[in-house]
Structures are given as C-alpha cells and as structure tokens.
Amino acid sequence: MLMPGPGQAAANRAIAWWLVVVALMVFAMVVLGGVTRLTESGLSMVDWRPLLGWLPPGSEADWQALFERYKKFPEYAKKNPDMDLAGFKAIFWLEYLHRVLGRVIGLAFLLPLIWFWVKGQIAPGLKPRLVGLFVLGGMQGVLGWVMVKSGLVDRPTVSQYRLAAHLALAVLIYAALLWTAWTLFMDGAKPKIRPPRWLRVFAVVVFVLICATLVAGAFVAGLDAGLIYNTFPLMGSGLVPPDLWDAKLGLLNLFENQVTVQFQHRLLGIATLFAGFFFWSASRALRFPPADGPGPLERLAPADRLACSTLMLVAGLQALMGVATLVMFVPVWLGALHQAGALLLITAGLWVLRRFYPA
Predict the structure, then answer these.
(1) pLDDT, tens digit (0-9, with 9 covering 90-100), for 283-314
(2) Helix count (H) and strand count (E) of the chain?
(3) Model-level pTM?
(4) For residue 184, which of 105, 118, 125 has the smallest C-alpha distance?
(5) CA–CA separation, 153 and 85 (whole Å)
C-alpha cells in the first residue's frame, strides 16, 4: 500500500487525515439518520433527485407544492392527517439535511481523491480501496432511497430489513475509512509485544458481537420495538417474555416480532458487555512474550492497554445508555446518543483490532 520515496510518509499522513475527516462526517450522518428515524421524518421527502436536490424550497408556493405531494402518500393519510404546513416543515428539514449531508460527504471524498490521484500521491495498492469506498458511498445513497420507497406504499413505515441494511452499509463505510487511515498512520510499524493467537481471536469475537448488536438495534428501531416492555432486566413478569415466539412466524420472529427483536437485542448487548469485560481483564492481567523472539514475559504496550480499556469503558456506557433509552420510552435525544454510542463502540473495537492486527 505504501509508495517508495522520501515524500511518501507525508503523503500518507495527509491522505490519512482526509479519511479521518470523511469518517467523522459519516459518523454525523449516521447519528442524523437516527434522529430522522426517531422523529419519523424520513418519509417527508417522497422524491429522490440525487443531482438536482441540493436546494430547499424557495417560496411559500414551493412549500405548499411539496406538502400537497406528501399528502398523496400513506404516511399523511394514516399517521398525520391533522398535520399542517408548519408541522410538515419540521420533519422535512431533518430529512433534507440528512440527504444534503450525504451529498457533501460524496464531494468531500471525491474532490480530494481526484487531487491526490492527479498529484501522484496515492500508492497503487491503495487506489482500488479508495475507488471501492467511493462506489460503496454511491450504493449507500441508492440503498437509502430504496429504504424510503418501502414506506411510500401501503404501510407508512420503512422496511426494517432495508433500514438494517442501510445502517450496516454506513457502518461498513465508516469502519473502512478508519481502518485505512490507521493503516497509513501506522506506516508498517510492528508491535514489540504480540498478543497470543487466542487473545487476538477473542478481540475479533468481541467486535463481531458489537456489530451484531448494532444490526439488531436497527431491527428494534425499524419495528419500534423499543416502545414495548420498557423495564429492565425483566420483560413483563420474568426475564423471558411470554409472547417471545409466534408459531405462525417461525424463524421470522427474529426479524418481525417486536418482542423477539427486543429480546435478542438485549441478549446481544449483555453478551457484548460480558465478552468485553473478560477480554479487558485478560489484556490487563496477563503477560506475553516479545514479538521478535524469546524473552521475559511483558505486559501489552501502553497504547494496546489503552485501546482495550477504552473498549471496556465505551461498552459499559453504551449498555447504560441502552437501558436508560428503554426505560425512558426512547426520547429522541437519548436515542440519538445511543446510536452515537454504538458508533463509538465500533470505533473502539476497530482500534483494538488495528493494534492487535497491525500488518
């Protein structure tokens, strides 16, 4: 991935900082998308104009035309029949900002990419990855519209499957941006202490649990499953709710039954927290051999220990926010913080993986 030459280190750092900035923009995009979902603003824009949709309505007549267009779709008739123009504007602005931010991110990625490419500062091995990231960004825009379209038919809510796919792709793009940036920052540096294989595999297991919990949370959001059983740790009168399994749905209970979806999100969250705790404990307590050969056992490097401790801290805070979000009946501000916390947990997990798998 790295180019030879005296100026390569500086070029790599510049590219890495650019990718970090774009990753931060994607972070904001995901949180804003969560707010649009929590406020049910996502279906306020019933058309998709990727090239011409930059400008907002410029006059009262434009606003009224958009409102009349919105009235033709099920959300107005079935959920918001008493909405006036002021109410429509309130939900429109959130979705509009979400879409415009997506376009801004596209430009923030494409224009520097062209500049670095023309200047010859991108290593040949890095070029396919950057082009692939740009393609994924375009696919994310298309998938976002496909998701919105699912709520413009008979049922005025988006498909939980498409919502989960939309969130998962956004997180994939975010993770790929950070992973690539950290690779460039590390510039081939090797750790002095190499954790054993079992601990590195354990780190992967924890990260998989984090991702699974996040995707399960998308199904909770898509089905409004956070608005039932708003107690913890009990669901109703016990740990396991009586209506957990609908025989008619079969395995679809995992994706379409509100109770089951919330229950599995709880279980995955708890599993993530405990797995993170045991991983953190092992990383802090054990001693490991040097990476370059025989020698006395040593603790992990300070940066590695910091990454593991950060993962544990964020996992604990995220679990507390999840419980608070549930018992408070999902207030918008707390739901948005919980979504941001999920991304911070992804970030912490990636940091650990990047430290444990530096090559």
Answers:
(1) 988 887 776 667 677 788 888 999 999 999 99
(2) 11, 0
(3) 0.94
(4) 125
(5) 22
Q: Which residues pair with 235 in a beta bridge?
A: 238
- Candidates 230, 224, 234; CA nearest to 261 is 224
The string of DSSP letters for 140-187 reads: HHHHHHHHHHTTSSSSSS--HHHHHHHHHHHHHHHHHHHHHHHHHHHT
Write out the DSSP string of 98-124.
Answer: HHHHHHHHHHHHHHHHHHHHHTT-S-T
How far is the first Cα of the chain from the last one, in angstroms, to the nearest whole number?
Answer: 11
74: left (phi over 0), alpha (psi -120 to 50) or beta: alpha
Closest listed residue to residue 144, CA positions, set 32, 225, 272: 32
Closest CA to 246 of 230, 227, 259, 264: 259
Round the CA-based radius of gyration of the chain to a whole number and report it.
Answer: 23
Distance, in Å, from the CA atom of 182 to the CA atom of 185, rounded to the nearest integer, reads: 5
To the nearest 10°, the Cα dihedral for 149, 98, 128, 19?
-160
Whether the CB-CB separation of 89 and 63 falls below 8 Å is answered with yes
What own/partner pairs with CB < 8 Å and gap ≥ 24 does 60-69 have? Answer: 63/88, 63/89, 66/92
CA dist., res. 15 & res. 29, Å (int): 21
Token pair for residue 198? 């079992």
Mind listing the pLDDT tens digit for each residue in 21-72? 999 999 999 999 999 999 999 999 999 988 777 889 999 999 999 999 999 9
